[in-house]
Amino acid sequence: MASQAANPNSTSANNNGTATETITAGNLTVKIFVDANPDQAVLDSMKIYYTFFVVAFVLFDVVQRRLKSHFACRAVHADTSCPTAAKSYGIFGWIPAVWRTTDDDLVTHCGLDALCFLRLLRLGRNISMGSMAISCVLIPVYATALNPLTDESTDWITRMAMANMNVALDPNRLWASAAAGVAITFWTMFLLLQEWKVYLVRRHAFLGQNTLQQHTVVVNDLPANLCTPDLLDTYLHALFPHQVQAIH
């Protein structure tokens, strides 16, 4: 019984920047369309998003100096004003002032929730910076890998990716990827541990303040016969004699 051998595969380039790879086996023919120039998509995305970022950033700087009641609402009222919001800045002059704002200033003028939110953003930034530092090591490892299918015409995105490595020819380079995974995991866990320590100290300090918010109780789902301040005051004074200061 004779068997029909598979026809050789073929690849052809198209005018729209894609390549068509035809795989034929017996009576079955499969055509796969592959992006022959993936780095162009990355460059186009960078042009679009960086342009939007620059325009939005400049627009924000212009508008926020003209609508201070919307972008610096704390400066409108003296009792809520803070030194950073009360000052007037020139073009991009607010950036150094915001950069120099300490965590203590944030807690004092904005509260613990604002500090936790901003520290969460810093945590993401620091994790990303660690990833970029590791990428500076991995990219040369990938780009210099032995791969007979890669030549000078191969786009730079492919040459810098893990797919550029040929495991059969050079399996030891996979240790770099494994080490990078371990490194970024330990880096993330270290940053999380530091954040939890800071949060623990800040939270205890916040709860230890002798302010009105530490002695205020919110009561929900009151029955109809206790929905007026006078009735609720009488009821709570009966439960806690001489311990209720005011009811609002």
UniProtKB/TrEMBL annotation:
Transmembrane parts of this sequence: 48-64, 127-146, 174-193
GO MF, one annotated term: calcium-activated cation channel activity
Keyword tags: Membrane, Transmembrane, Transmembrane helix
Domain (CSC1/OSCA1-like N-terminal transmembrane): residue spans on this chain: 42-195
Keyword Cell wall biogenesis/degradation appears in the UniProt entry: no
GO-annotated cellular components: plasma membrane
Entry keyword Hydrolase: no
Name of the featured protein: CSC1/OSCA1-like N-terminal transmembrane domain-containing protein
Taxonomic placement: Eukaryota, Sar, Stramenopiles, Oomycota, Saprolegniomycetes
